[in-house]
Amino acid sequence: MSPAPPRTQPPSQGSSRDTGHVSTRVTSSHFVGRAGELAECEAALREAGGGAPSVIALSGDSGVGKTRLIAEFSAAAGGRARFLRGECVEIGEGELPYGPLIGALRELARCGDPALENLSSGARESLGALLPGLTGSTGPVEPSDESAQLRLFEATLELLDLLGEEQPVVLVIEDLHWADRSTRAFTAFLARSLRSERVLFLFSYRSDELHRRHPLLALLSELDHGERTRRVALHPWGRDELGEALGDILGAPAEAELVERLFARAEGNPLYTEELLAAGLDGRGGAPRSLRDAFMLRLERLSDDAQRVLRVLAAAGRADESLLAAVSGLDGPELTTALREAVESHVIEAGSDACFTFRHALLREVAYEDLLPGERASLHLEIAHALDDSLSHDGHDDAQVVARVAAHAQAAGDRTLLLTASVAAAAAASSIHAHGEAADLLERALEAWPHVEGPQTVTGIDHAELLARAASEHDDDDKPTRAEPMFAAALAEIDEDAEPVRSAQLLDRLARTRWSLARGDEALATARRALELLPPGRADAQRASVLVWLARTTLLRGRYRDAAESAREALEIVTASDAGKHLESQVLETLGMALVGSGSPEDGIDTLRRALALARESGLGYTLAYAYGNLAEVLFVTGQTRAALELALEGAGEIPSHLRGSRAWLGAMVAEVAFAYGQWQLAARNLAVGDLPFEGRWLMNLRLRQAELALGPGRLDEADRALAEIEHLVSRTLEPQFHGHFGLASADLRRRRGDLDGARAALQQALDRIELCTEDAIRLTAIAAAGVAIEADIAQRARDQGDGDCEAGARRRAEIGLERTRAAAEAAGAVEAIWLRTAEAEHGRATGADDPAAWASAAAGWEELDRPYPAARIRLRQAEAELERGDRDAAAVSLACSIAGAERLGADWLVEEGTALAARARLVLASPEAVGAAGADVPAAQPADPFGLTPRELEVLRLVARGATNREIGAELFMAEKTASVHVSRILAKLDVRTRTQAAAVAYRAGLATDGRASDRGQVQAAR
User: Fold this and answer.
1) Could you give the dihedral angle defined by the CA atoms of residues 991, 997, 1003 and 1006, in that order, rounded to the nearest 10 degrees?
2) How many CA atoms lie within 13 A of 90 on its CB side?
3) Phi-psi region for residue 119, left (φ > 0), alpha (ψ -120 to 50) or beta?
4) Using CA atoms, how far apart are residues 551 and 562, in angstroms rounded to an integer?
5) pLDDT of residue 773
6) pLDDT tens, position by position, 165-213
7) pTM here?
8) Within-domain flag for 716
9) CA 52, CA 954: separation in Å to the nearest integer?
10) How many domains does one find in the chain?
11) What is the DSSP string of 317-374?
12) Is residue 472 included in any domain, yes or no?
């Protein structure tokens, strides 16, 4: 079996014994073997057609038949699927990134596929960089940033999804072992990101090419962990399969002796077998020194003109007729004759792009290795100059061609051409966000620079600019440690006095790089130096860029007044220019959040609403997501919990599905507010991001929300894992928001495990990391109040143990914590005021003067803010204080409020604590009517429920009615399996039935089994 499609020539009629006869057809027209592998591919296609996408990693040694299997798979699929096919080509380092992806998608742009018209504007812009033939990209251009490559990947996924709506899509990338790093990155992204698209992604690679340091090995290891990845490995033929193929090729059954001889020489490799036949080596006579000698015998049987063309093609890798003519020196008729001879001899083949390639890469390798060193260099140089001369300079084909010029110039050793072509190829790679390849090309240019006469003249740039470009590409490729010294070196070559604007531009980039390296003070000083070089009178885009970044960074550090000052100056510049609504929106967002943080919440919220309106007008999904997230966060921290949740849900509904990073960030915002609002299942659904890859700030945000959601029901180990994963990231960030959330979650985890000293240390570490001069009152207030609660626990434990010294120390620290809370909450908002009430109640507990009224006030405050979880926890403390005062009736009501609220939320650990307290105190809990009369935010039983089931029990009953096991109930409602069992037992008792089946029947008869799920917004309204 050949790795190429079946040929159409008639089979030879000669006998297999006729060693002087060579078959004119060397490929079996019959597909031999591989039935299982083909069935695996077809099964994956069926699943993809049903919305279960798959990834197939097709491996095998050189010549074993990977390409033939793909061709047979395509033929067998018929019109049931659309095949998009690209291949990686070994033309040396420096080739244009995404070559196989461009090859697979180019035809869509050429034919104007309707799916391209249905893309979102952002996706069209991103793909327009990859497919210059894509027309109609009239939407606004998203500003370049570190997520540009991800947007390109997401746009490609959106396109595949749209294509799949008509029929399943099979994206094929062959020879991935030769792929550039950007193509490998796309492969990893697509394999991780497929969810329900009707897409089958199939890539092939040579398993015998993968040395232990091959970059593809790490990717394959990563993909092996994915549920959608199937490994399909092709192995050599057995004797029976070889005999079947020979019989088809020769037109008669092959004799056993011939089969055995060829099997011994080719070892069952289909291509090697065919090449032995084509070279007249059917197994008789002396064996060649190696199989490559057999390949050379086949090439040497061709005419001189054909061999001349093949030598050019061996150096070029792939070439059209114009390139072959320019380098080989053959005229039209001579070239046509030579090409026809090589094609009919099955040595080369023409692709759909009118380029010729060797029929198999091994044939090219043999032809290339046969070239003399000087001959190779000469051919590469001629090819480089011919390609350079062919550049159309129309902005369409130049990008791919110039990348090849750079590769051939390097192979030829022409440093001048290498320098110019590398700079041009780097620009082409950067334009499609292949920043790693662009950085490599520019590094190569830097190496060539000192060896070229007049390098600045031939490139049109100076050495500092080349350094700056290389640094920028490394920075965009997320390699700040390499970028930072190159930016510094570029700055050292520039005279600040002579070129202040240019210096400021580099200082701006250097500041951002140093910030990403967690060198915050250096970064801010660098940005301020950039501003010094751009006088305030300069209303230009560069000064606006520095100010916007400086304002945002200052904001993130909690310095709101400084941030507002920078934002106002930036706003003046932006509004006086045509910088665009997206930039004006971003400046307004920074200004709005700074105003809220510095004590002007109404002005800040108004400013943020203006920013949101501009973001909508900009038409950019990322800008819109940013605006929604910021406004929702401000509403939340100012105590408008319900409004924040409704706005965050509205934003999540407006952001396009392909913007997965933005949707995930907004989803985390929804989760944070929904958790506080008491809608924990809604929070969980918005954190269900599957295995999408997240790093840095995105990973911290996601894991903090997941830890919070795990701590609520009491899944402590899960919370511990989430926090441990990001601890190293939190230690490096300079943003108080992450230190605050991490410290609070870590302290709660340790406190619930009984490690009070560890809880105190976690909070102290958070306070130490948040700068003393920060104006982030909400974070400081929450941490300080939590610290008072820890000291109250320690003081209470010390009193129980009779340890006076320990109690005195805890009381002193509680006093300090209360004063810190008062200072942070002074002139702050509603949330900080409730934290202060809570700290005052905890301080009373620490000093032994537990006051039920203080607890009642704090609980009522949290309830007024629509935050039932802290209210339920505080009601438990209120009950303890009332029991200590001897007021058992009041304690029964408070404890009933706490337990009912905890049950509704699913805070099983709190239910258990409340129930244990009731048992210890021998309290009879108050009735729902009494609880309602007390004004607690606990919903009464539904009118349609005659059995007195709590809302939590109703949720469990609905799952029982659907046939869920206790384990499944626990997973769905975020409770332990044992807790689910307790709920089921209570339900059976209340329904007066013995079995789950009977309970389900009662539930259906009473109308209690309906899910009642509304939209997420409907849940918010219902909860109200």
Assistant:
1) -80
2) 17
3) beta
4) 7
5) 52
6) 999 999 999 999 988 888 998 998 898 888 889 999 999 999 887 877 8
7) 0.64
8) no
9) 34
10) 7
11) SSB-HHHHHHHH---HHHHHHHHHHHHHTTSEEE-TTS-EEESSHHHHHHHHHTS-HH
12) no
